[in-house]
Structure formats: structure tokens, C-alpha cells
Amino acid sequence: MSIKIIKQGVLTTLQDGGRKGFRNMGICPGGAMDIFAMAVSNFLVGNYESAAVLEINFPGPGNIVSAKCDHQFSRRRPFCISQ
Known about the structure:
Elements: E1 3-5, E2 13-15, H1 35-45, E3 53-55, E4 63-66, E5 72-74
């Protein structure tokens, strides 16, 4: 499955669980802002809890179209997509 984002949001980013355990080497852990929401979203679609997700901030994307399915997501509605 693939998706096409027609109009991205201002701060839409691709985030995963981060890099924990490397601060002693000067590497920030990074990762998603809301780890719980990322884990729940991944659970709902059957992914590992730290799998990469699109982190969408206000204002969100205009339209997201699923390329191989008959789904289109528009406006500000929560959604989960899995392969």
C-alpha cells in the first residue's frame, strides 16, 4: 500500500521510536512527540510499537489519498494506515 499526500501540513514529519541509549555519544534520542499515540496507532494497524509514523501537527495536510485503495482522507480526522 502506498499513500500520496497532495498538500502537506506545515510541520508534518516522519517519526519513529527514536534512538535511546546514545546520549553519551552526543546523539539526542529524537523520535515522536507523543510516544503513547504512536504506540497505540501502530498497535491498531498491527505494526511494531516503534514503527515509523507520520506525525501531523496543526494545520494538518489538506488531502491524503491511498494510491491502491478506494480511501481518501480529508479535513482533520484521525486515521491509521497499514500495509
